[in-house]
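note to self: the first set is below, dont mix up w the second
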Amino acid sequence: MQILRAVVTSGSVTAAAANLGYTPSAISQQVAVLEREARTALLERFGRGVRPTAAGRLLSDYAGTIGAQVAEAESALTDLREGRTGRLSVRYFATAGAALLPPALARLRAEHPGIAVDLKLIDPEDPLPAVERGEADLAVVIRPRESARDGIRLVHLLDDPYLAVLPRGHDLARKRVIDLAELAEEPWVGTESGPGGSAGPCLDILLDGCAAAGFTPGFVVESDDYATAQGFVAAGLGVCLIPRTALGTRHSGVVVREVRRPRPFRAIHAAVRESSLGQPALHGLITALRETTPGK
């Protein structure tokens, strides 16, 4: 159809052949094939050249429309392939959203302004299926309980250490660094319950750290978020451990101290499909997450 359009716009088979770099015979053969498929004449002689029949004019006009759409599709595909347009679906847990994503997304927007980002808050318990099913391009996850599943790449972003949060005026507040075992006899404020009170990945990290220090924390009160936990600590109800990235806002009634022997931390990763790593925008977001994380 594009050859037919070239003949129509050029006015002759010879002129179309010269413009396209073909022989007149090759052009005539292609037009003859198209006429057999259309089951009607598409060109008629006119003077020293040719002109389209009604059917030829119809197909020539459609060829112009199709050619423009193909060119538009090729341009859009190039933009998508090179990361100038498209959409990324990102899943994250609350403290990652507050501490990790904002600077990374600001950098992504500067480098890939045509990329739309779909953000959704998730439970950190098991976000990998969303990536496996293609519902998310990237999920920010906490130390998976199992090795990465087939087809999933885990990219380490940072190790987020837990810090001790004590009531202001607590005897241990005078120390700069606290041995975790020094908190063994303290009442504890729980901060890491999973859905319905079950153990989540963060609670496992906390309990494992305390076990390594030789004790099991005695929880006297549970909280649903870190801000509420700080309020309970400030009221003197107990002590707790909170990840550094979750302590951007601190209650005036608490003090925060480093912990050692051991120093619990949660390893935060970006989970992506292996098959998606070649996408420029996704690669740019992963790079931004690694290079704009707190402390880097």
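second set (the one i keep forgetting abt)
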Amino acid sequence: MRTSRNNRLFALPTSPPEILDLVGARYHLAGVFKHDFFAATCLYELVSEPTPDAIPKIVVKFGRSQEFMGLPCAWYAHFMQAHEKAIYHALAGVDGVPRWAGDIGKTAYAIEYIEAKPLDHLEKPPAGFFDQLMPLLEKIHARGVAYVDANKRSNILVTDAGKPYLIDFQISFRLRDDLPRPIRSIIARAFNYIIKRDVYHFLKHKRRLCPEELTTEEDALSRQRSGLHALHRKLTKPYRTLRRKFLHKQQKSGLLTSPTEKLETHHQPEKATWRDEKKLS
């Protein structure tokens, strides 16, 4: 009977470094928000004497460094690091997007930590929250970035004052200015389609969480699923179901144990989709 833990389903085979240095400042590992197949997202706190540019708390995303089924994966982590770096630089100065803090090696990076709770941790956000969130989305779109991952409430942060922040631009789409005009024109069509999907998802969250604040026009937009959207749901639903059942079986047998489990004090509602048998039926 197999008793070894299935660490291959996690980005890192062991815990991330206890201490790391970034732009002349030293940080200590304070916790792990999330550790999945693609990345380990961790909280680090400043322990050295602060410099003028030092950020007191940073979130470090370590991309997958270990192989999977004999195939190297570090190249993908490096690619995603470069991709998100370009996105954060494109959005620099947008109020509601954390500051980029720096590269850490070739497969990890750091951003500013925001004192806030993910939207999926709240039964209901403060009144007027979505009226602040939509202008933030418009600013991001104006910088040539389509968010893409708007369906995930865990990527929408809510501060105690009710201010929105957006994080995790891993699959965001950037309309680059340096592309040849014919190619950029074609890509712009895809970009315009995606930003409409961003609006749809954000208004869908508003309809479900704050229906009393929804206007008639917003209600209509929040129900406009496109044909491609419906096709995507149809194609990915079987995969999600099989994935959740597999993870549940691994977790129930004791094989699926994260290398950072003792550091993962952050509530992760998305894990309930495969840990809870009722939600698998």
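remember for set 2: The first strand starts at residue 19 and ends at 22.
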